[in-house]
């Protein structure tokens, strides 16, 4: 409104809805002879409204007449356009994003819904899209090498408008990657007997699940030992000084497969075994299991004696066998290794472990 004050005062101007005298908004410190202005938002389309204004110079106020206006009719949104993927596109992902450009002549925000044109199944909806913006949804888990048709519907809250129907064709499935980069390396030697097997696999198509058939053994071809999704395999403790053969075959969730080369490696040699009889000592005299003094030659034992042995190996000790005159008399599988020997007849004996 235009406001005038004969004293050239500035004014605060308030605006009201005449239908219920509710306050719309105010404009402060308005200069004499200028216009006061507010925004009356969120009105209804094609509706008549009445309003008035009050000017206040801090001492006096004056109310205007009541005025009327009718809002414009609502116009439907334009048809959604500019599809992505473009119409009749090929080699599209099986998990694509689809989007459209939406425009509303009344600058309304829109809810945009996407549909599978084959059966009108709802794909997804995005809400409150501004005029002149793109609406986008994901369309997951499609089939490979298949043509799909779709359309979008823009909704401004009162009117809707449907787009054309567009098409695209998804990419063909690709076989999984050929298993490669073996560890241990092909032809490796001196491999630890507790080594794990690992390789590089995967699939060029995002979202494909890959399983691996593991073939492992000491024969050609090696037998299949496991099917798994991991790219490593624990064969357990292997034999020393043994050539092992292995191969990986991969298969994706669409049934395509790829076979790796056959690889081999050889485990390290059996580490040396050290074993020593620590009791009785050579050229010593023993009485009732106690060493009394050294001798010039031979070893003499009177009464029972503990034959004690020190045995070590990186591979571990499974057992120690005790022989008297080449006859096995005792086996010990726990350290410290020992055997209580009780000679019955005097004579010459040979102790071996």
TrEMBL record:
Residue span of region Disordered: 170-205
InterPro entries named in the record: Ig-like_fold (IPR013783)
One of the Pfam families matching this protein, by short name: Big_7
Protein name (Swiss-Prot/TrEMBL): Uncharacterized protein
Organism: marine sediment metagenome
């Amino acid at each position: 409104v235009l406001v005038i004050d004969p004293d050239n005062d500035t004014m605060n101007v308030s605006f009201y809805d005449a239908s219920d005298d509710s306050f719309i908004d105010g404009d402060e410190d308005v200069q004499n002879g200028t216009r006061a202005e507010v925004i009356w938002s969120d009105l209804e389309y094609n509706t008549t409204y009445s309003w008035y204004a009050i000017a206040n110079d801090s001492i006096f106020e004056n109310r205007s007449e009541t005025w009327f206006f009718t809002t414009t009719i609502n116009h439907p949104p334009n048809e959604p356009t500019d599809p992505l993927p473009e119409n009749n596109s090929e080699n599209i992902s099986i998990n694509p994003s689809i989007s459209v450009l939406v425009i509303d002549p009344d600058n309304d925000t829109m809810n945009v819904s996407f549909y599978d044109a084959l059966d009108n199944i709802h794909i997804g909806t995005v809400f409150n899209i501004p005029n002149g913006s793109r609406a986008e949804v994901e369309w997951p888990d499609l089939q490979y090498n298949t043509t799909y048709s779709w359309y979008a519907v823009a909704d401004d809250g009162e009117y809707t408008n449907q787009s054309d129907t567009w098409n695209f064709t998804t990419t063909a499935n690709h076989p999984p990657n050929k298993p490669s980069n073996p560890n241990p390396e092909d032809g490796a030697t001196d491999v630890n007997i507790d080594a794990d097997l690992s390789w590089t696999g995967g699939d060029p198509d995002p979202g494909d699940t890959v399983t691996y058939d593991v073939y492992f053994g000491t024969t050609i071809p090696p037998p299949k030992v496991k099917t798994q999704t991991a790219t490593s395999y624990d064969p357990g403790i292997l034999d020393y000084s043994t050539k092992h053969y292995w191969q990986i075959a991969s298969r994706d969730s669409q049934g395509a497969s790829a076979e790796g080369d056959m690889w081999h490696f050889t485990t390290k040699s059996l580490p040396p075994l050290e074993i020593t009889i620590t009791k009785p000592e050579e050229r010593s005299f023993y009485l009732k299991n106690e060493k009394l003094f050294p001798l010039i030659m031979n070893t003499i034992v009177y009464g029972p004696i503990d034959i004690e042995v020190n045995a070590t190996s990186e591979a571990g000790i499974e057992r120690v066998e005790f022989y008297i005159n080449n006859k096995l008399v005792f086996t010990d599988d726990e350290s410290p290794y020992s055997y209580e020997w009780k000679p019955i007849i005097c004579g010459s004996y040979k102790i071996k472990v």
